[in-house]
Design goal:
The complex is a heterodimer.
Chain A (H helix, E strand, L loop, with lengths): L1 H17 L3 H28 L8 H21 L7 H5 L2 H6 L5 H6 L6 H19 L6 H31 L4 H14 L9 H10 L7 H8 L9 H5 L1 H21 L7
Chain B lengths: L1 H9 L1 H7 L2 H25 L11 H15 L13 H7 L12 H30 L8 H28 L7 H15 L10 H8 L8 H8 L7 H27 L8
The chains are: A mainly alpha, B mainly alpha.
Chain lengths: ~270, ~270
C-alpha cells in the first residue's frame, strides 16, 4: 500500500514536470493522437480499397484496430516505459535504480509521465465508440465482459513483448532497436484480419510473434469468425488469459535478467 | 587530403553500425521479415480484387517492397551513439561542430552522405535478392530504369534537405521531440511509406502535390512501377529538382542563422 502511495506521488510529480514546457506537453499529446490516426488512415485506406477483407465486413474489421489501439493506449499509460528502455540502460540508470529501496521495474516505469498516452487513449476511445456504434452485434453482458478482458489482455501481452526485449537490452543495449520494429509491426499488422496472409506468415504472427492474440483472435471470437482463424477455437478464445500469463512470464524473465545484469562497471 | 577528411567523416555512422553485430543482425532479419510480410499482405489484399487506384497486383507489391527497402537508406541509429543534432544541442556538444576545421554544414552533409551510401548498399542488396526471387518486377525498359535512378537520386537529395531542416529546428527549440516525431510522421505519410499515395482520396493526393515529401519516395517508385508514365517523367523530375534547389537555399539560410544561436560555456 505504501509502495502504491509513493508510486502515485511520483506520477503526480512526473506529470507536473511534463507541464514545464507547455508547447512540448501539447505536442506530445498530439503525437500520441497522430500516431494512432496513422494506424486508422492505413486501415481506412485498406478497408476502402479492399472491401470484404478476409471474409470480414468493414464494421467487424474496425473492431480489431479499436481493440488493439485501446490496449496499446493503456499499455503506454501504465506499463509503456519498457518501450525504449534501452536508453535508460545505456545511460546507466539501472545502476542507480538498484541502489534504491524500490523494485527496479517499478522505478523504470516511473521514470517519466507518458504524456502521449493521453492522445493515444483519446483517439482509441473515439475509434472504439465508432466501432461499437457501427457494429451489428448484440452486445450482451458476456460479450462486453469479453471485450474488456481482451483489451486488458492485449495490454499485458504488449507489455510482455516489450519487457522481453528490455531483458535482452540489459545484456545488449542495442537490442532496443527491436522494440521500434515491434511497435511498427503491431501498428501495421495488428489492425486487420490476418487470414488475408498466407498460412505460413499468419503462423509466424501467431506462434513466432504472438501478435494475433492482441486483437485479431479476440475480435474473431466476438464477431463469430473464431473458427476461421487457423488455430483451435479454444486457443483463440483464451487470448486475454494468454496475455496475462505472458506478462507474468516476462516478469520472471526480467527478474532473472536483472540478477545477471553486470552494469557498465562490471 | 580533403578527400581523406571527407572519407573519415562520412564513415563515422556506418563504422558504428559495423561494430555492433546485434544491430547488423537485427537489420538483416528485420529487412527480410518486413519484405516477406509486406509482399504477403499486398498479395493477400489483391486476392479478390483486380486493378485498383490504377495499380495492378504486381505494381502494388513492387511499390510496397521497394518502399521497405528504400526506408533502409536513412535509418541508421544515431541516437544510440548520442549523435543526433537534438542530443548535441541538449548536451552542448554541438559547439564542437563549430570548433573543427570543417564547416558544420559540410560535416553534416558528409555524415549524411556516408549514411545514405551505407543504407543504399543494404537497399541494393535487398533489391537484387527480391528481383532474383521474383518478389519485385523489373523496370519495364532501360529508359524507365534510367529515369528511376535519376529520380531516386533527386529524391534522396530532397530527403536529405527535409531531414536537415528537422535537425536545424533543434537550434531554435529546447524540447522538440514531439515536433520531430510529428514531422517524421508527416514525411512517412506524405511520401507514401505507409501506403502508396494512389490509394488515398483525391484531395490528399492534390495536397501532397504541393509539399516536398512525395518527391522523396512516391515519385521515384511510381516511375519505376509505371504508375507515372515516361511522358510525364520530365515534369516530375523538374518538380524534384525545384525542391532540391529551394530546400538547399532555405537550409543554407538556416545554417547561417543557427550559427548565431550556438553558445559555448555560457556565452
Amino acid at each position: 500500500m505504501n509502495g502504491m502511495r509513493i508510486a502515485w506521488r511520483v506520477t503526480r510529480l512526473n506529470f507536473r514536470a511534463q507541464l514545464e514546457y507547455r508547447t512540448e506537453f501539447l505536442l506530445m499529446i498530439a503525437i500520441g493522437a497522430i500516431w494512432q490516426v496513422s494506424v486508422i488512415v492505413f486501415a481506412t485506406v485498406l478497408l476502402t480499397r479492399f472491401t470484404g477483407m478476409g471474409g470480414w465486413d468493414s464494421s467487424e474489421v474496425l473492431l480489431i484496430p479499436a481493440t488493439r489501439m485501446l490496449a496499446h493506449g493503456l499499455f503506454v499509460l501504465l506499463l509503456g516505459r519498457v518501450h525504449g528502455a534501452g536508453r535508460q540502460i545505456q545511460e546507466g540508470r539501472i545502476d542507480i535504480y538498484l541502489t534504491r529501496p524500490m523494485p527496479v521495474y517499478r522505478q523504470l516505469q516511473l521514470a517519466f509521465f507518458p504524456t502521449n498516452a493521453i492522445g493515444d487513449l483519446t483517439v482509441a476511445v473515439g475509434l472504439m465508440v465508432g466501432a461499437l456504434s457501427r457494429s451489428q452485434l448484440d452486445w450482451t453482458p458476456g460479450r462486453i465482459s469479453y471485450l474488456i478482458a481482451a483489451v486488458v489482455g492485449g495490454m499485458f501481452l504488449e507489455a510482455a513483448l516489450f519487457t522481453a526485449i528490455t531483458c535482452a537490452g540489459l545484456r545488449f543495449p542495442a537490442a532496443d532497436y527491436w522494440s521500434r520494429w515491434l511497435e511498427e509491426l503491431l501498428g501495421t499488422f495488428g489492425s486487420y484480419p490476418l487470414n488475408v496472409l498466407p498460412k505460413a506468415v499468419g503462423g509466424l504472427l501467431t506462434y513466432g510473434l504472438p501478435l494475433a492474440f492482441v486483437a485479431y483472435f479476440p475480435a474473431a471470437i466476438l464477431t463469430g469468425h473464431g473458427h476461421d482463424t487457423g488455430v483451435p477455437y479454444w486457443l483463440a478464445a483464451i487470448s486475454p488469459l494468454l496475455g496475462v500469463v505472458a506478462y507474468l512470464g516476462a516478469r520472471v524473465l526480467w527478474g532473472w535478467s536483472l540478477r545477471h545484469y553486470s552494469g557498465v562497471n562490471g | 587530403m580533403a578527400v581523406l577528411h571527407a572519407w573519415r567523416a562520412a564513415r563515422v555512422t556506418p563504422l558504428g553500425e559495423l561494430h555492433a553485430p546485434p544491430r547488423m543482425t537485427a537489420v538483416l532479419v528485420r529487412l527480410a521479415v518486413q519484405v516477406v510480410l509486406v509482399a504477403s499482405l499486398w498479395h493477400g489484399l489483391y486476392a479478390h480484387t483486380g486493378t485498383t487506384a490504377g495499380l495492378a497486383e504486381g505494381q502494388a507489391v513492387t511499390y510496397a517492397v521497394l518502399a521497405v527497402l528504400a526506408s533502409r537508406i536513412r535509418e541508421l541509429d544515431q541516437y544510440a551513439g548520442r549523435d543526433t543534432v537534438l542530443q548535441h544541442m541538449h548536451f552542448g556538444t554541438i559547439v564542437y561542430w563549430y570548433l573543427r576545421p570543417l564547416p558544420p554544414q559540410r560535416y553534416h552533409a558528409l555524415r549524411a552522405l556516408g549514411e545514405q551510401l551505407y543504407g543504399f548498399a543494404w537497399a541494393l542488396g535487398g533489391y537484387l535478392v527480391c528481383l532474383a526471387a521474383g518478389v519485385v518486377e523489373p523496370p519495364r525498359s532501360a529508359a524507365v530504369a534510367g529515369v528511376f535512378v535519376l529520380s531516386l537520386l533527386l529524391g534522396q537529395g530532397v530527403l536529405y534537405f527535409v531531414m536537415l531542416t528537422l535537425d536545424q529546428l533543434c537550434f531554435w527549440t529546447v524540447r522538440n521531440n514531439a515536433a520531430m516525431l510529428i514531422l517524421i510522421f508527416a514525411q512517412n505519410l506524405l511520401s507514401g511509406v505507409y501506403a502508396p499515395l494512389w490509394f488515398f482520396p483525391d484531395w490528399f493526393i492534390t495536397l501532397s502535390g504541393f509539399l516536398p515529401f512525395q518527391a522523396t519516395l512516391s515519385v521515384p517508385l511510381s516511375l519505376y512501377i509505371g504508375r507515372i508514365p515516361l511522358s510525364d517523367a520530365f515534369g516530375q523530375l523538374a518538380i524534384q529538382a525545384f525542391w532540391v534547389v529551394a530546400l538547399f537555399l532555405f537550409t543554407r539560410f538556416l545554417w547561417r542563422r543557427a550559427a548565431r544561436r550556438v553558445i559555448s560555456q555560457g556565452g
